[in-house]
Amino acid sequence: MIELVIAILAGVLCGVLTGLVPGLHINTFIPFLFLLRGSWLTGFVLGVVVSHSLFDFFPAIFLGVPEESTALSILPAHKMVLRGKALKAFQLSLFGGLFSSLFAVASVPFLIPLSKLDLRIPVLAVLVATILFMLLSSSRKILTAAIFVLAGILGLNTLGEPNSFLALFSGFFGASTIINSLMSNPEVPKQKLVEARVPAFKPVFLGSLAGLFSGLTPGISSSISGLAVKKLGKVSDEDFLVVLGGANTVYAFMAIAAIFIIGRPRSGAGLLLGDSAGMFMLVGGFLLALGLASFLAWKLAPMVVLVFNTLPTKGLNIVALGFLVALTLWFGVFPLFIVSTSLGLVCLLSGVRRNTCMASILLPAVLYYLP
Predict the structure, then answer these.
(1) Any idea what DSSP says for residue 115?
(2) In sequence order, which residues have a C-beta less than 8 Å from that of residue 345 and are 6 or more positions away?
(3) Contact 26, 48 (CB under 8 A)
(4) Do residues 166 and 23 touch, judged by C-beta distance below 8 A?
(5) What is the tens place of the pLDDT at every residue in 233-259?
(6) Strand ranges (E), 232-359
(7) Where do the structural domains in the chain lie, given as residue ranges?
């Protein structure tokens, strides 16, 4: 038991690093994690996954901040950064991750019977419905459809190759945002230590639903499901951050727990653990990691904000972009990174939601589930 707690704490601390540094993720280190065994493997992986899901909102909030006129097309958090409320934006996502996860864990016993059902047709129907939602809800339908097809073809030709996810998502959602910010060169004000209040029940519940949905459905990311519940639930920008935070952390848990619910894991971490941990160890370890990571995130957040206040935004973006370039060169996926970055930039400059690039996973998933 003590060994498990130490492993979880070590994983949480490692997750702080992977969360704060853009481009780093537990999937990057999976080859080395096979060296771990038993409770050390379970605890460390759970700690990293949970902590990363909370702390990775910091680079999403601070890096690639656009001009005020284009902030809505990137993230609601960026509008808050431009008002000096980055700490509040992060704490809203943290509240979502913490409270939505408690709902999700409580729902697991009711979801386990799904493992006895044939879900291929329902999953296919959900994937098709999601694609239709993405295309029909866009204000630029023809361009959205074109980008969807291009991203889908890119996914079909690269998924399964080593580190393809790193190249695709670092380009779609990381480098493209940073380059867009460098092109616009916005003035980012000093951030104030304005704290968030505990959110209402509605966004917490919606964040839990979004995370459950994406965690159990192949090809559906937490951002896509979060966008869907925003449309259906009609939540404000601040509540949307709660929804996204909840969806992100719940997805991290459900993508591992899916081995017990639908018979297959939904993430690299889930694939690594398989069913070796057992459901009780998985739930208990997750809750412990969630408590430790949430406490650490709450305490460190003001200090991280103050550090960012002392750093030049443009220089920080250049360093982050250089790191992503170096990372993709090291893993031999730089050409794919260039293509995905270009497609992400097309989305930003044309006003098409970058969630459209998730076609790189959606289209292969649809073809897999076709009868």
Answers:
(1) G
(2) 176, 179, 180
(3) yes
(4) yes
(5) 677 888 888 988 898 899 888 888 877
(6) none
(7) 2-369
